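Prompt: Have a read of the protein record below and flag anything odd:
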Amino acid sequence: MKTGRVTVSDRASAGIYADRSGPEIERVLREVFGADVRFVPVTVPDEAPMISAALKQLADEQRCDLIVTTGGTGISARDVTPEATRAILEKELPGFGEIMRVHSFAKVKTAILSRAVAGTRGPSLIVNLPGKPTAVRECLEILAPAIREAIAHLRNEDPHTQPTG
């Protein structure tokens, strides 16, 4: 499974601090889907045009099965990942964001401030995740069955015959 992972962070893209959420995405997806997951890592600042361009390149040119973003889903002025994602989606899948917020709310009451979205573009499933490594893990673990099913549908495969990874 070819996976684009996009870290959205002004400071990480400038080299001010190390990206911890991107590597966590890789760890969790390898645990869930196996060692065959290949990653195309990208780090961009909190700039909507740059985020949209990265997502389009990963979907249209790299033909990634899955594209996962981390960061930029809150309510501060620089949090523009959902807008940048919506701008390039063909089909939005609101259930992904809804279940992440519901699940996370049980642990952190401010999780309802997340604006994460998901959807498809061509052959790719795109999912926005929070920026904290612990939230990345929690959200990916609950989303894994839906991710598996969505990718199978995008590949025109029977999702019920796919390995569980």
Notes: The two ends are 11 Å apart (CA to CA). Residues 2-161 form a domain with the Molybdenum Cofactor Biosythetic Enzyme; Chain A fold (CATH 3.40.980.10). The mean pLDDT is 93. The longest strand covers residues 2-8.
